[in-house]
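Open question from group meeting: does this chain pack into something compact, or does most of it stay loose? Before anyone orders reagents, we agreed to write out a predicted structure and look at it together. Recording both the input and the output here so the notebook holds the full record.
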Amino acid sequence: MTRVFTTGQVARIFSVNINTVIKWFDDGKLEGFRLPRSNERRIYRESVVDFMESHDIAPELLQAFDDEQGNKGKRGRAKSQVNPVRQEDLRTFARKPVELPGVVLDNGTVVPVKVRNLSMGGVYVTGFASADHRIPEEFSIKVDDAEQGWSIESTCQLVHLKRTRDEGFGLGCRFTQVDPSALQGYLQRI
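Structure tokens returned:
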């Protein structure tokens, strides 16, 4: 069992961008240490467990990571699992269905969208239609909930997309930069 994780391993456990883990570390949300004469960070296992508990993240994600590490063969390939874990069981953050207006900001272009799902890890939006038919790999998004008096701006990375009935696209996005305390506060209220 791993006692100290790299930022890349923590990013894999939580299914987030490594820059998000670095930000959490630098903001003191994850505890660990830096290697001497380097920028590399190491994160204590106990800190990861505490973070999971404080954010209601299923502990099975850490167990799945441990199992994967234990099943690696001599060449780094994972052995076949007897009891494979279903993909929906590995979801790091619970999705909350919402119906909120938002805008995607891409290279100075503002594209209105509808936010359908929101979680600590990312967002799913529909209605994206670009005038130049370009799908951005990374972009900023702004989401507003006027009733709750809440709004958030974040940078997102495209994870998947699909064409929707309205000739636009649905974008599944992972947060690469987000204020986790503001987002968590909002998600707990809805």
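Observations to bring back to the group:
Residues 78-82, 85-89 have pLDDT under 50 and may be disordered.
The chain has two domains: 4-90, 96-189.
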